[in-house]
Structure formats: structure tokens, C-alpha cells
Amino acid sequence: MASGQQNTIFRDIFLVLASSFLAAFFSVYIFGEKLEQKKTELAIEQKIIENQMLVVSRVIEKASTLHQLAPLHRQYDLVTKFYPKELVEMAKAIEAPTISKAEIIKAQKDFQIALFSSKPFVSEEVFQKLALFGVKITQFNFLPSGQQEELHKLYESAGKEYREALELIRAMYVTSEVSRD
Predict the structure, then answer these.
(1) pTM for the full model?
(2) Domain-embedded: residue 30
(3) Which residues, at least 6 apart from 148, have a Cβ–Cβ distance to it below 8 Å?
(4) Residue 103 in 3-state DSSP?
(5) Where are the transmembrane segments (predicted)?
């Protein structure tokens, strides 16, 4: 082989190797940058979803607390329908209601704060259901005594709104679950 041919072969091999190296470097650089960008976007999205879940779980916790405390606050008014008024008054004299008016007002305030802070993170339908629950449970808590039938209806109606909101939230997060195997 002539020296010129050898030089041409080495030059061609060098050009092929250099171009392969440059192509590999730029592909890794470009794709790596896109991969890092995608990882960052996914991490941000995951953090947003985690924060959203915290806000939604907080509003549900406050709604649940209010839903459980409300009948304890009105316990004697609720049983008047089933027992003679004198017996209920006697029981009331022996043992005061478990939940005070101040405690129920605090629970309602906590729920309303959590509800309005969750507005950007929940659907309009969920917000409306929880707001309606709040309205009905407030009516239940502050309805004058002696209207037992109305008390039962309000509590059942508030409970219905509460359960529907929970179902909507459950459906929202069950359908958005991603399996990571």
C-alpha cells in the first residue's frame, strides 16, 4: 500500500470516528438536557399533586370533624323526638351536652377556612357540595330547639352532600392514579 492511500484510510477512519463521537456527544447532551428537563417537570408536578392532596385531605378532615361533632352538640334535641320531653330535660340536667357551642363554632370556622383555601385545588362541583354541606350543617347547629323533624332532615341532607363530595374526590384521585412498576 502506498503511503498516500494509508493517509487517506487513516484520515477517513479519523473522520468517521470523530463524526461518530460528535454525534453521540450531541445526542447525549441534547437528550440528556431534555431528560433532565422532563425529570424536573415531573418532580414539580408530583409536588403540586402532593400539596393538592394535603389541602384536600385537610378540608375533608375538617368536614368530617364537623359532621361528627354536630350531632353531639344537638344530642338532646335529636332524642326529644323519641323520648318524653321531661326525660330529656332530666338527662340534660344530669349531664350537659358533650360539645359546647364554642367548640362547634370553632369546628365550623376551621372547616370554612379549609374549604375556602381548597377552592383552587378542588373542582367546582366538589366545592359546591362541601359549601352546601357547610350551609346545612350550620343550619342544623343553630336551628332553634323544638324542631326535631327539621333537625333530622337537615342532618341527613348535610350528610348526603358530605358523602357526595367524598365520592367526587375519590373518583377524581382514583382515575388519576399512575402505576409505577
Answers:
(1) 0.70
(2) no
(3) 77, 78, 80, 81
(4) helix
(5) 13-32
- Check: CB of residue 99 under 8 Å from CB of residue 69: yes
At a CB cut-off of 8 Å and minimum separation 6, what does 63 contact?
A: 111, 114, 115, 130, 133, 134, 162, 165
Q: In 3D, which of 168, 98, 107 has the Cα closest to residue 134? A: 107
Helices (H) and strands (E) in the chain, counts: 6, 0
Residue 162 lies in a domain: yes
Task: Supply the range of the domain harboring residue 133.
Answer: 54-175
Whether 165 maps to a domain, the answer reads yes
Cell numbers for 38, please give them. 422532563
* Max CA separation in the chain (angstroms): 122
Q: How many domains does the chain have?
A: 1
List Cβ neighbours of 33 (8 Å cut-off, separation of 6 or more): none
Burial category of 21 from C-beta neighbours within 10 Å (exposed 0-12, middle 13-18, buried 19 and up): exposed
Q: What is the pLDDT of residues 93-132, one digit of tens each?
A: 777 777 888 999 999 999 999 999 988 888 899 999 999 9
Rounded distance, CA 58 to CA 50, Å? 12
